Amino acid sequence: ASPGSAQVGVIGMAVMGSNLARNMAHHGYRVALFNRTFARTQAVIADHGTEGEFVPAEHLEDFVASLERPRRIVIMVQAGAGTDATIDSLIPLLEEGDIVVDGGNAFYEDTRRREAKLAEHGLRFIGAGISGGEVGALEGPSIMPGGPESSYEFIGPILEDISAKIDGEPCCTYIGADGAGHFVKMVHNGIEYADMQFIGEAYELLKALGLSHEEMADTFDGWNSGDLDSYLIEITAQVLRQTDARTGKALVEVIHDAAGMKGTGTWTVQSALNLGTPVDSIAAAVFARAVSSHPQLRAAAQAALTGPDGSLQVDDPAAFVDAIRDALWCAKVIAYAQGLDLIRMAAAEYGWQIDVAAVARIWRAGCIIRAKLLGRISDEYAANNLVTLLEAPSIKEELGAKQDTWRRVVATAVVSGVPVPGFSSSLAYYDQARAPRLNAALTQGLRDYFGAHTYRRIDDEGSFHTLWSGDR
Ligand code: ATR
């Protein structure tokens, strides 16, 4: 290809980057390709070179020279050091007005820092969260871009073209300034952790009821055709149906029960702690993974502690299966409410103008948490000025109708010794949030007692300190 002929360039030819580049080529873009190790670029051309117009480059200078000006470059390398190294090597090669998109899983504070740094060089930067795994990158992910809106206008059409579509709408929309896109992607992942934890608790309860893996898979398939219709429920049925070729057992039962994590769930909780916003359900999911991956604790506690054996005795097992489904739905709604509240609070803190309805709308397809419920959540935010999802008309009504069942599931699980940290912490959040009065009054009294931290009264203005009778 002639110099300056590629419309967009992708740096990083690992799975996500190469699939995103192929997706662009499938949409008719001429795509420049670069990877630190050229062999990877060559492999992409060897395997997929006929799928569209690619302009591979061994040297970054040639890659940059092959792009139309102003240049559009999407970085898909290892988040963190890889992204910084790539940006540093690009800066001297780029010219004013060129635009760099970081499509990796960057921490939003890094995105804020990088945007400021590139702006100093007259370069434009977009931090775009991309969800959908490798298939999504290839066939249409959900994309959450953040940065200056004027920069988005320049790269947005390509991102919208390659994103997933639902009802003819792209699952990509401008989110807000600087780190807003990566923040929203981070919260997406936090919600994903919670979704998976709730599904895990439902699985454990169904198993405790004595259902076979075939029956559990059928149950999840059934749930997937109702209110819980979602990608994660759909693939849960498939995972439960898988048998292990080596032992003939259900594959899930021979998988080591220690969950891994790459950090986005932890970031979500850390950010929530920094902002003072409760995301109990997401935290419960992150800590449940931490317990699973703490072998010393588990071995010591298993040897030391007694309790019920975790089998469930219920009068009407079929009804209890439905009850588990309802508890899962309620807990899921709570996690979404917490995640969206976190986005709202971060937007206020960082001055982002985030349209929560639009965020829910682009999560309806392409991404890992895609779910029918997100259409309803989006409609509710669009129609109402909501502080919390929990006050949305159709949501509060359904939670009200199901909360009794949800309590029964949590209570039964607790009595039987089945751990349900996600279901129960979500329920505690529900009850805390709706409580007319919280035990925080006593906390304030204690703080004033030992530290003279003062308190406010319900019947007067100002701060008060008491000379407590126990004071010496
Ligand atoms: P995966 O897990 O799919 O391999 P990843 O680790 O997130 O993906 O990203 C790997 C990509 O980041 C590779 O393209 C890698 O380049 P190499 O093929 O040369 O290893 C790229 N990458 C990692 N660190 C980098 C760095 N410091 N500078 C440039 N590219 C880097």
From TrEMBL:
It comes from Kineosphaera limosa NBRC 100340. Belongs to the 6-phosphogluconate dehydrogenase family. The gene is gnd. It holds the Pfam family NAD_binding_2. It comes from the Bacteria. It is an enzyme of class 1 (oxidoreductase). This is 6-phosphogluconate dehydrogenase, decarboxylating. The lineage of its organism: Bacteria, Bacillati, Actinomycetota, Actinomycetes, Micrococcales. Keywords: Gluconate utilization, NADP, Oxidoreductase, Pentose shunt. Pathway: Carbohydrate degradation; pentose phosphate pathway; D-ribulose 5-phosphate from D-glucose 6-phosphate (oxidative stage): step 3/3. The keyword NADP applies. The active site is at 185 (proton acceptor), 192 (proton donor).
